[in-house]
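Task 17 of the worksheet. Students: predict the tertiary structure of the chain below and write it out as structure tokens. Keep your answer in the requested format; marks are given for formatting as well as content.
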Amino acid sequence: MIEALKTLRLVHRLIIVVSVTFLAFAITPTDKDKYMATMKQLRKLQKDDFFDKYKKYIEDVGIQESEEIKAVLDNVAKSLNVKIEERPRPHLTYVPLPPKTASLAEFLTFFNKDKTVFIAKPQESELEALLIEKLQSDSIKAGENIIGLRFKLLGKPEFVVERKFLIISRIKPITMVLSGKIAHKDGLERPFSLNIQATVRKDETANDWLESHDAKWFVKELEKSEEQFPLIRHKSLGEAMEYLESKLDSEVDDIQLFNLKVSERRVVWVAPVVTFALLLYFLSHIKHLLFLYKNKPDRQLNQFPWISLYPDLLSKVLTFSTVFLLPVAANVCLVFRTLDDFGSLQTFIGIVFTILDFFLGIQVYQKLELLK
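Model answer:
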């Protein structure tokens, strides 16, 4: 009986030592976490849909503004009983996203620009009145067609060049020209043009797009990465990823456990499996001791110096903490440490055995209570 108790106490102490070792390793902060967080954000930027979404955003802005122009021209066609075959879009200027080969500094510069989207168009009411007046003065008749309508700016918005990319600076009042042709019934096409004052209807920044598309994380993470890793500031996305991967490889540590080395990438499944084996071995000895005690009660059981046999509340709390809370907490922390590699087989094994450790730890504690 005494030998069995000594074995149980030894295994209990072993579980405590192993769990504390794994927990200390799991919660120790390293630069690896910073590297992985930055790599996670850069991977999002590397995806084509990030660039496609910005392009679609620009297209949607142009379509939205074009709908208002279309409504004006429909009113003109209805008033004069003519047909307008084309609906011109307002003047749209925007700064494109830097290419994927651009440096991270260029991306940050782009997203911090004051203005990146500029749309000039006339006031709807003014456009309608002036266009009707112009067409009537050119003797347009009911049933005739208006073709080739185009908007053109007289003058250009002032641009300045910054780090190879155009950004819009001061915007002065701009005159637009609406040109087209009247296709008369006699087969002749008479060109016409109309000068009209343009207004700035859109004057946005890339950050407006980031806000509306829940992509604000990008600027924040890049700014963080610049503070943490100044060496990647002037690297392209691909070069930055290669640099961070090399730093990540250099940060990989081994965990020392009873003269055995376990690599950091394997500990996520090794720790839960080792914990499971120890708890299972522990449970097997507890059941054997319960069998012996049931058939031959022994007073030495209550006198043996082992905290799991003490009846007071503090001893119960410590026992529960060391056979259940501590092992499970250590393994959960290890799993969370590798969530960036969530889809890997190693992480999956770690999660499965952590769950098994949870239920096994409860059973071990319940069996220990039967010894008292």
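Marker's comment: The CA atoms of residues 94 and 117 lie 4 Å apart. The chain has two domains: 2-30+255-370, 66-213.
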